[in-house]
Design a protein that fits this description.
Two copies of one chain form a homodimer. In chain A, helix 10 links the parallel strand 6 and strand 7. Chain A contains 14 helices and seven strands. By secondary structure, chain A is an alpha/beta fold. The radius of gyration of chain A is 24 Å and the shape is globular. Chains A and B meet through helix 4, helix 6, helix 10, helix 12 and helix 13 of A and helix 4, helix 6, helix 10, helix 12 and helix 13 of B.
Chain lengths: 366, 366
C-alpha cells in the first residue's frame, strides 16, 4: 500500500475535489495555474486529525511550521482544540552522531515496535541547522526504507532552519497533533552534535543514545552532557568481527555511568549492544524501553517529567522571547558591540557594561 | 605575625586615628558610641588597594558586598579604577563535596604555592546558600589554620546569601580588587553540590575537583556536569589503607574522562591522588596546575578563556536582569500562577501560555 503522504492527495493536487481542474476543462492547456488549495476551517482540521487523516495532519503540521501570522493563529487554534486528545503516547528521543547508523536503526526500531505493539508511529526530528530547500538531513524518508512505506508510520522531517527554540516549539506542537491523530509512539530524532539534544530530552519520556564501538578516539565524538541525559545507551554495529569491541565499549559506558549520580527517575540507565543492519538485539532494546515506561509510570516519574517539561517549555519560551526582544533591538545591538569591546579591552567590567545596556533598554520602554 | 584581618584595625575600631575616641576623652565612660568610620574617597580606596593594604582591600570588598545603592556606586567606581591593574594572577577554582577534606586541602595547597612560588594568595568562595549571620560555611578562617595566620594570604568568606548571579558577581569583582592589590594567586572555593560550580568555572583559569576514594555509591555524589568541567581531578585521603582504593578510583575517573570529548583547551584533564592531611602528593598537583597554565598560555587558550568569561558575565548579567524584571513584575507573577496551572491541566500549550504572559508584559511597557 502506498503511504498516504506519497499520494497525489497529500501533494495538494486533488484535495479540492468539488472544483474542476483547469486541465479537465481544456486537456490541451499546456501551462495552467494549480488551483489554490482551499484552506480548511479549524473545525475541519481538528475533525480530520481526530479521525487520523494523515493528509489533514500533514497540512496542519505545515501550518505549525509556517511563518505567516495568519497560519500561526490558525495553527494555535487547531493545537488548542487537539490538546485534550494528546498525551497518550510514548515519546522516545533518539540521538547519535552521523555515521552511527541512526536512520537504519530508526527504520528497524520503528518496524519492531509496530509489529510487536501495534498502534501507530510518528517519526519527527529536530535539527536547527537543516534547511528544507536543501533537503533536510533528518527525517529524510528515503533513509527509512521500510517505515516510509508502512501504513501506520508518519515521517516528518525537521522543521526548516531557525532558532533552536523555534524549531523545538514546532516539533513539540507537532507531537500534540500526532498524538491527537492517534499516534501512540513518537520518535524524535536528533543529530548528536549540538544543543538540540537538550531540546529533545526536554520533550520525550525516554532518551536513547546510539553509540559506536571503537577506540577511545571515536568515543570523543560525544558532546558534553549528552551521555548524562541518556536513559539508555545502545552500541550499534555489534556484528561480525565487531561484537567483542562493541561489548567492551558497553562495559566502558557502564563504568562511566556509575560515576554519575542516579537520575531523578530512579532508573539506572542501561547499556546494550545491537546491530541495526542485521537486526540483532532490537527486541532487547525495546523491551528495555517499555520496562522503563512501566517503571516510571509506577513510581510517578512519568507524569512528573511530563509536567516538568510543560513548565520548562513555558519558561524557556518566555526567556527566549525576553532575550530576543533585547538583543534584536537596533539601539542595543549597536551599543552591545561597543560595550563588548570595552569589556575585552579591560576598560569596563562585565557588570558595568551590562548595566549600561540595561539602562538604555529600560529607559527606551518608558 | 598576626594576620592583618585579625587586627583591631581591620575590625574598624582604630582606622580613624585622627579623631580621638570618646573613651580617650572620658576613660570612665561605660557605654559609648563607636565613631562612625570615615568613608574613604574612591581615590583613597584605589591608592590603598594598589599599595596592597589589606585593611583597605577588606573594606572595599565590604562595599562590593553591600546592598546599599550609595555603596554600590562607590564600589563600581573603585573597581573601574582598579581594573587596569587586575588580571595578573592565576585563578584556580576548587570544588569538592562536604566531607572531601576541602578546607584542609586548601590550607595545604595554599601554603605549598606560597612557599614554592612566593607572591600572595587570596582565598575567596562562592556559596549562594550561605548567610553571613549564621556563619558562612565556606571561607571560614578557623578551618584554614595555617593560611589564616599567613602574612601573604587573604581569606574572605562567601558573600552572604542571594541569587547565584549576585553572589558570583560580588566574588568576581572581589577578584579584580585582590589582583589590583597584588594577589597573584586566587583560589575560589565552592561546595560541590550545586550550580555554583558553573559560576566558579566561569571565573577561573583552572578548575580542580576534589574527590574521595570509595565505592561506586560514594561517587554518586558528583553533580551532573561537574566532572566534565574539571581540568584536574584529585582524589583525597590517599593514605594508609586507603592508598589502593584511591588509586583504583583514579583509574575509574581516568577511564570516565576518556569518554568525554577533548576540552577546547587542548589539555587532557589529569587525575591524581593525594593526602591533604598528611601532605602527600601536594607538589605533584600544583606542578600539574602550573604545567596547565604554561600550556594554555602558550597555545593562546588562557587569554581566550578569560575573554570568553568576560563576555559570559556580561551576557549572563543582562539575561538575569531581563528575567528578574519579568518574573518580579507583580501582574506577571499572579498571571504566571494561573498560566502554569492551565499548562499542567492540559488546557493550554506551554507556548500559548508563554505568549499570554509576554503580551501582558510588553503591553504594560508601552
Amino acid at each position: 500500500m502506498e503511504h498516504p503522504e506519497n499520494s497525489e492527495e497529500y501533494k495538494g493536487l486533488t484535495v479540492n475535489k468539488g472544483i474542476e481542474q483547469p486541465s479537465a476543462i481544456n486537456p490541451y492547456l499546456k501551462s495552467f495555474k494549480r488551483p489554490k488549495r482551499r484552506q480548511f476551517t479549524p473545525g475541519e482540521y481538528v475533525e480530520g486529525i481526530l479521525k487520523g487523516d494523515v493528509t489533514v495532519l500533514s497540512q496542519a503540521v505545515t501550518l505549525v511550521e509556517s511563518v505567516k501570522p495568519e497560519h500561526q493563529t490558525l495553527a494555535q487554534e487547531v493545537i488548542e482544540k487537539c490538546l485534550p486528545y494528546a498525551g497518550n503516547s510514548i515519546r522516545v528521543g533518539i540521538s547519535g552522531v552521523p555515521g552511527s547508523g541512526k536512520s537504519t536503526s530508526i527504520d528497524v526500531f520503528g518496524l519492531h515496535v509496530l509489529e510487536e505493539k501495534g498502534g501507530k508511529l510518528a517519526v519527527l526530528a529536530i535539527d536547527p541547522s537543516s534547511e528544507r530547500s536543501k533537503g533536510s538531513i533528518l527525517g529524510d524518508k528515503t533513509r527509512m526504507e521500510k517505515l516510509s512505506v508502512h501504513p501506520d508510520a508518519f515521517i516528518r522531517p525537521s522543521p526548516s532552519a531557525g532558532s533552536l527554540g523555534g524549531v523545538a516549539r514546532k516539533t513539540r506542537e507537532t507531537i500534540i497533533l500526532c498524538e491527537a491523530a492517534g499516534f501512540d509512539k513518537i520518535f524524535v530524532e536528533t543529530v548528536g552534535v549540538g544543543q538540540s539534544e537538550t531540546a529533545v530530552h526536554s520533550m520525550v519520556d525516554f532518551f536513547l543514545l546510539i553509540q559506536l564501538a571503537g577506540t577511545g578516539d571515536e568515543l570523543q565524538g560525544i558532546k558534553r552532557g549528552i551521555m548524562e541525559m541518556a536513559d539508555g545507551i545502545v552500541i550499534n554495529k555489534a556484528d561480525g568481527d565487531n561484537v567483542e569491541k562493541a561489548k567492551l565499549a558497553a562495559t566502558h559506558f557502564r563504568n562511566a555511568l556509575h560515576l554519575f549520580p542516579a537520575p531523578e527517575s530512579g532508573w539506572t540507565p542501561e547499556v546494550m549492544t545491537y546491530s541495526g543492519f542485521y537486526g540483532i538485539g532490537i527486541k532487547e532494546i525495546w523491551d528495555m524501553v517499555y520496562r522503563y515506561v512501566d517503571f516510571v509510570k509506577a513510581n510517578g516519574y512519568f507524569e512528573h517529567r511530563r509536567n516538568e517539561q510543560a513548565k520548562y517549555w513555558m519558561y524557556e519560551t518566555i526567556n527566549e522571547h525576553l532575550r530576543d526582544s533585547f538583543y534584536n533591538n537596533p539601539e542595543i545591538a549597536s551599543l552591545l558591540e561597543v560595550q563588548e569591546r570595552e569589556v575585552l579591552d579591560g576598560k569596563a567590567t562585565s557588570f558595568a557594561a551590562a548595566r549600561k545596556l540595561l539602562d538604555l533598554y529600560f529607559n527606551q520602554k518608558k
